[in-house]
Amino acid sequence: MQIPSKYDASQVESKWYDYWMKHNYFHSEPDDREPYTIVIPPPNVTGVLHMGHMLNNTIQDVLIRRARLLGKNACWVPGTDHASIATEAKVVAKLKEQGIDKNDLSRDEFLKHAWDWTEEYGGVILEQLKKLGCSCDWDRTKFTMDDDMSEGVIKVFVDLYEKGLIYRGYRMVNWDPEAKTTLSDEEVIHEERQGSLYYLKYKIEDSDETLTIATTRPETIFGDTAICINPNDERFTHLKGKKAIVPICNRVIPIIEDEYVDVEFGTGCLKVTPAHDENDKNLGDKHNLEVVDIFNEDASLNSFGLHYEGKDRFVVRKEIAKELEANGVLIKTETHINKVGTSERTKAVIEPRLSDQWFLKMEDLVKPAIKAVLQDDDIKLFPKKFENTYRHWMENIRDWNISRQLMWGQQIPAYYYGDGKEDFVVAESLEEAVKLAKQATNNSQLSASDLTQDKDALDTWFSSWLWPMSVFDGIRNPENEEIKYYYPTNDLVTGPDILFFWVARMIIAGYEYKDEKPFSNVYLTGLVRDKQRRKMSKSLGNSPDALKLIEQYGADGVRVGLLLSSAAGNDLLFDEALCQQGKGLGNKVWSAFYLTTLWDVKDIEQPEHSKVALEWYRSKFQKVLGEIEDHFSKYRLSDALMGLYKLIYDDFCGWLLEIVKPEYQKPIDAKTYNAIVEIFEDNLKVLHPFMPFLTEEIWQCMSERTPEDALIIAKWPETSRVNSTLIEEFEVASEVISGIRNIRKQKNIAFKETIGFSVINNEKTNTTFDGVIAKLGNLDAINYTNDAVEGALTFRVKSNEYFIPMVGSIDVEAEVKKLTEELSYTEGFLKSVQKKLSNERFVNNAPEQVVASEKKKEADALAKIETLKSSLASLG
Fold first, then answer.
1. In the 8-state DSSP scheme, what is residue 550?
2. I need a surface site. Which of 81, 298, 479, 560 has the fewest CB within 10 A?
3. Separation of alpha carbons 824 and 828, rounded Å
4. In this structure, which long-range contacts are made by residues 203-207, counting pairs with CB atoms below 8 Å and at least 24 apart in sequence?
5. How far apart are CA 778 and CA 776, in angstroms?
């Protein structure tokens, strides 16, 4: 086989991905091996690959590929989420382009368009994940709207309803006027925004007197049904029992008293709008106030808004302020910062709205999930700091609003048979609903045509909270072979932004339906940000095209680039230079492999320097392997990769291959060559989870392999004894070699020129690596002496002194002058450092690490001065 000198990812990646797919390496079936299972956080079916997906799925692929190498039955289940709000919005937009109004379609007609859209565009992201090298079990791909998945969701709804945990209630909800649906509290993002506080005068009925209220939303005055004062506020004692007149609409409303009113805020008078504020609604219920809803579902004003009917709320806010000012009602405005709720999906400002919705009681359901994470440690969060966030959310949980005013999603299985809101039954099918309705009405003549199914769909999270169970059909068939084998899953990799939306809810569902945790470990990645620490987004234009990055740097390069700076829970500051660094590692490894293909292998005696170097590297490999195992156990994948990077780039490519490389046009001994091949293969096994394409290509080029011998299913290297002494001795030897090379470079001594070498061995350093030092330094011999060598160049490693006799025509006078100047500068630098350290105020007040840094500078300067003096003495 002709091995190219340069690595070209574009010629390799699709070849090996197709090979892995052809031989079914990604597929898993239950057997007698230990299972290792990951379920993918299902991306929106509307989605395309972005940097967050790249990071998240690279981490999952690293974990799953390593599990395969460890001999586990690795199963990574992929899939997509139907994403009710986002998908319906895209379908509605497409219909609008075609001149079709969603409201003119029946549910079945709309769903046909939604399914057509999903089949055309859905799953694009899964195809893109293949470009990244993700080794998912594609045969198991699931979609949250698959028939079996939907059946499981409906089954759970009915079960929870029958347990008394799901109820229908008329409550104040978060309304998204753009998506025209309600949202759960967790889907509302609260942002601080600058607005205005408007001071308005309300007339007192049958009086010339007025009172002043302060509001941030003057457009809601049409929904005012009371003015509230604090009964303890002496400023307003004279208003008790009186009535006020709402400006513009002239509605007469009572003045009520309640200690809820903050006497310090605004004017101390509060306008009460029960239909549009949760606290106002509570006041309204307590005081039996009228409820006046002034908004349409798109947050435009309805007929209660009089001449503003049909106009958007924000347009009305500006216009009504002008009208109120013209009428002498608006006294003044002040700049005001307040928190505004926005939709997590559409970014629209949320409108509090009274509505009939379905809710799930959470108070008791949440208890096992709190215990599992915060008390029993059955489920571990990485990093641990997120336990505080989890605790706050879970201990302050509210009932979950699970209904959405959408067509795309699982339709709520409630069937109405009468005129009243309470005239309904809940059932898994229409047939079952008819039976229940007959019993409820005692009417045997009732038929399916007499029932009307609830129009709302379930919250998307209500399907995805079942994901680890439903992908193995664990809801419909709770005792099937697969759910018993694969559940609970092992690791979940996701972002902290959905710790409550998804992670916590899956834990809740797991204990409710399997009485068991859904996974053991949750690895929470950080957000991918740009170099300016801005979150990557399309609107900012700072998110690179993921596929173009792969095209430019190769999938392996991008994977390494992402992982090098992605410690768990910490945001990743993405820089394309990281991908270049990843590509550089790939090129380095390929060059190392190419070098070995050029060697002429002969059955000759193994040099001593090669023998000891191989022993050293095996120990260094085992040491790093142990560190990598520890990093993996703590989900420090970035640290694991960095340790491996240094091992392969520096120790293997930079040192070992240089030591064993035969002289020009001379052969390498077979024993060393075979050991290098074995070591190279171990390197590839450990590097494979991070760089799967490059490593499989080299592996397959190294030898004729059958499909059973592919790297993807090879065996992870076994651990063995570490010779720490050998590792420490090599560290000293490498410093000595670097010292020799520095002098050669500074004095322009050609590397092909043999030089003499003497050592004062104050450290009693072992001579194990003398052969290595001699080869890489091109020394004629290493002479151990008790005295300094006259007329030699010198350097120091620890307390050992090393001497290289001057070679050729070195200008001694110039060398003395140069060393003298360097000595003078270093002595001056030492004085400045020591002056700082003698300052008690500095030592006592400066941070500990700053003081430690200054002390290190002092020690380094002292050592350098000693070396310079020794060099000057040797020059006479």
1. H
2. 479
3. 6
4. 203/244, 203/245, 204/239, 204/242, 204/243, 204/244, 204/245, 205/242, 205/243, 205/244, 205/245, 205/252, 207/242
5. 6
Share of the chain above pLDDT 70, in %: 98
Asked whether the beta carbons of 55 and 151 are under 8 A apart, the reply is: no
Q: How far is CA 68 from CA 16, 65, 635, 832, in A?
A: 17, 5, 17, 58
The encoded tokens of residue 210 equal 């007025």
Using the CB atoms, write b or e for 690-722: b if 16+ within 10 Å: bbbbbbbbbbbebeeeeeeebbbbbebbeeeeb
CA–chain centroid gap for 154, Å, is 31
Report how far Cα 346 is from the mean position of its chain's Cα atoms: 22
CATH superfamily of 181-351: Valyl/Leucyl/Isoleucyl-tRNA synthetase, editing domain (3.90.740.10)
Residue carrying the six token digits 């070992």: 656
383, 639 in Cβ contact below 8 A?
no
Q: What is the pLDDT of residues 222-233, one digit of tens each?
A: 999 999 999 999
pTM: 0.85
The owner of tokens 């290595």 is 772
Fold topology of 144-165+364-413+459-527: Rossmann fold (3.40.50)
Token pair in block for residue 851: 């003081």
What token pair was written down for 853? 């840094």
- Give the CATH fold of the 811-876 domain: Helix Hairpins (1.10.287)
Question: Long-range contacts for 438-447 (Cβ within 8 Å, ≥24 apart)?
Answer: 441/417, 446/417
Q: Which residues contact 472 (CB under 8 A, 6 or more apart)?
A: 77, 480, 482, 483, 486, 487
Q: Which residues of 592-613 are buried (b: 16+ CB within 10 A; e: fewer)?
A: bbbebeebebeeeebbebbbbb
pLDDT for res 538? 59
| CA–CA separation, 195 and 385 (whole Å) | 35
Quickly count: other Cβ atoms within 10 Å of residue 23's Cβ.
Answer: 14
The rounded distance, in Å, linking the Cα atoms of 579 and 762 is: 45
* Alpha carbon distance 38, 137 (integer Å): 10
* E strands present in 527-618: 528-529, 572-573, 601-602
Between the two ends of the chain, the Cα-to-Cα distance in Å is: 61
Average confidence (pLDDT) per 10 residues, the chain, 876 residues: 90 97 98 98 87 92 98 97 88 91 91 91 90 97 96 98 96 91 84 92 93 94 96 90 95 94 85 93 93 95 95 96 95 91 88 94 96 96 93 92 94 91 93 95 92 95 97 97 98 92 96 97 88 70 85 96 75 85 96 96 96 98 97 93 96 97 94 98 98 98 95 96 96 95 84 87 92 94 90 88 74 76 88 88 82 85 81 69
How open is the CA angle 115-537-93, to the nearest 5 degrees? 30
Tell me the β-bridge partners of 863.
Answer: none
Spatial separation of the C-alpha atoms in residues 335 and 328, rounded to whole Å: 20
What residues does each domain of the chain span? 144-165+364-413+459-527, 181-351, 416-453, 811-876
Say which amino acid occupies 259: E
Q: What stretches of 517-567 adopt beta strand conformation (E)?
A: 521-524, 528-529
How many angstroms separate the CA atoms of 414 and 424, rounded?
Answer: 6
Q: ∠ at Cα 724 (718, 727), nearest 5°?
A: 95
What is the per-residue pLDDT across 567-587, written as a single tens digit (0 to 9) for each?
A: 655 788 888 888 999 999 999
